């Protein structure tokens, strides 16, 4: 069952969320895919935004199936968002490389996907978002480069057309299924 839990990670700007959304719209062989909505302590349109005190209460109450901190923010996934696994469905989570070893111990056999792209592609994408200054983008890319790539994961390069990387992911899910 845990193999259908797909944990995406990679540097900001690599296109993790774009790939997850593409895959949800183009599931392999008609399989059911669910995007796990995260609970986060920052404004985020696709996630459940909350304050740090509420996040901590959710964590202590065991509401979160997994949680981590990155770039000064807290992220988590509620247990309820993993329930589709019990029906044989896929659940896609946008996670963190730094949390990979922990999530592996919690969900042995899950599928890890490391999405990457060259530094110049990351910089171009992050600048296009317009959320950070040039200096902040450079610092983010340097931090990302300093983190080792996770072991035991599928590597997907997302430096071209989104559909190309998406089709590679479809093949990964077919192989796991």
How would you describe the overall organization of this protein?
The chain has helices at 16-25, 52-60, 100-106, 119-129, 134-146, 162-176, and strands at residues 5-9, 33-35, 38-40, 48-49, 64-70, 73-78, 90-94, 111-116, 154-157. It is an alpha/beta fold and 177 residues long. The protein has one domain (2-176): P-loop containing nucleotide triphosphate hydrolases (Rossmann fold). The strands form 2 sheets. The protein has a 5-stranded parallel beta sheet with strand order 2-7-1-8-9, covered by helices on one side. It has a 4-stranded mixed beta sheet with strand order 4-3-6-5, covered by helices on one side. A hairpin with a 2-residue loop joins strand 5 and strand 6 (73-78). Helix 1 packs across helix 6 (162-176). It is globular and about 45 Å long. The N and C termini lie close together (10 Å). The mean pLDDT is 92.
**Kindly, what is the distance between the CA atoms of the first and last residues, rounded to a whole number of angstroms?**
10 Å
The low-pLDDT segments are: none
Structural class based on helices, strands and sheet pairing: alpha/beta
The order of strands across the largest sheet is 2-7-1-8-9
User: Beta-sheet strand percentage?
Assistant: 15-25%
Order of helices and strands: EHEEEHEEEHEHHEH
How many helix segments? 6
Characterize the main sheet: 5 strands, parallel
Envelope shape: globular
* CATH topology descriptor: Rossmann fold
Helix content: 25-40%
């Amino acid at each position: 069952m845990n193999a259908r839990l797909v944990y995406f990670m990679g540097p900001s700007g690599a296109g993790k969320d774009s790939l997850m959304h593409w895959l949800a719209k183009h599931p392999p062989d008609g399989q059911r895919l669910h995007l796990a909505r995260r609970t986060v302590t920052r404004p985020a349109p696709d996630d459940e935004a909350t304050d740090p005190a509420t996040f901590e209460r959710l964590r202590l109450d065991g509401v979160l199936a997994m949680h981590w901190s990155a770039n000064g923010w807290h992220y988590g996934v509620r247990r309820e968002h993993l329930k589709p696994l019990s029906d044989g469905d896929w659940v896609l989570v946008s996670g963190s490389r730094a949390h990979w070893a922990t999530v592996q111990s919690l969900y042995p056999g899950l599928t890890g996907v490391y999405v990457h792209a060259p530094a110049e592609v990351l910089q171009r994408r992050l600048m296009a978002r317009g959320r950070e200054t040039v200096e902040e983008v450079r610092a983010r890319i340097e931090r990302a480069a300093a983190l080792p790539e996770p072991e035991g994961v599928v590597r997907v390069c997302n430096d071209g057309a989104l559909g190309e990387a998406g089709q590679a992911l479809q093949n990964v899910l077919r192989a796991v299924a």
